[in-house]
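In keeping with the milestone schedule agreed at the kick-off meeting, the structural modelling team has produced records for the first pair of proteins. Each record is given below as a sequence line and a structure-token line. The laboratory manager (R.T.) confirmed that both were archived under the project's standard naming scheme.
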Amino acid sequence: MYFRSQRKYQGDVSLSDSLDSDGEGSALSLMDVIRVDDDMLENLDTRESCQKVRRCVDRCLSGREAKVITLRYGLDGEPPRTQREIAAACGISRSYVSRLEKKALEKLREAMEQHE
């Protein structure tokens, strides 16, 4: 009777069962093979947040403000640039870039709070 009842568990495999071992004798388990990185959900959340910011930049900011924020924070896929680099590219002063950035960030903050 016992053997008949255990028959249904015959194909069960534990995630901690050893599959193989490397040259040093360390065991490789099934969990090591199928494990999902813990940061996957965090990466998805970050990607979603970036898309939300890009939409707000396009919708809420003037052309010049959007350009400054895009260049400053690398929203165009390029590395973030300094205020001095942005000023040279746009033909404006660094202090004006700073004022535009501050004003644009305030607008973005308000827009993001409204759409939470």
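The second protein of the pair:
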Amino acid sequence: MAAFIIADTKIENADVYEDYKKQAKAIAETYGGQYRARGGALDVIDTELWSPTRVVIIEFPDMASAKAFAHSPEYTEVAKIRHANAKSTVFIVDGG
């Protein structure tokens, strides 16, 4: 069953963040990840718990693949770019 990594990101340094996006996408794809949304226009319906900024959705074949990507040594290193140049909330949700 598919699993999804969902990230809401407020980019603070767009030039450097471009490098993160390129590297993260390549790594996600090696774990079977497919980007389903990547910062497109939002139509926010309710904001009682959260007001999204820039949403990214990556679909993985299953929860194990999503976790393997998120905790992989190669992504952990690249995530340092995101942490230094953006604020974000990231989570994995089971597609079931």
